[in-house]
Please model this.
Amino acid sequence: MKRMFLGVALMLFASACLGGFVFLKELNVSFPEEMYKFVGTKTFVVRFFVLFGDEKELGIVFNGSFFAPHIQSLDRFTLKVETGESVHTFFLQPTRKGFYFAIGDHLLIVPKGSKVFLENQEIPLY
Model:
């Protein structure tokens, strides 16, 4: 836990110095349910909250789940980040949890003004 905190703190410091990059890290900590906002449909839900924001970057924590009782396997979730200059695509490995495929909490740091999509569902950052 201490090592992870130091790593996140170092990344936040680097983002303040460098600016304009996209960073994604899977987290192994839990946050209270009250912190999350929800967006999506009955079958696909993205939970997220803004962790920090300044004039250059925005940091969010997000996870997602897809209701698929009849699908046996799902290879990946696609995360797309559109910045003013480029598009970044990440592939996240879901795990089966009952009738759902889910991805755990992730930290995402993006330049201010970016658009973020998880499986074509936009996460409203602003």
Notes: The first strand starts at residue 23 and ends at 26. Residues 2-18 form the longest helix (17 residues). The two ends are 30 Å apart (CA to CA). Helices lie at 2-18.
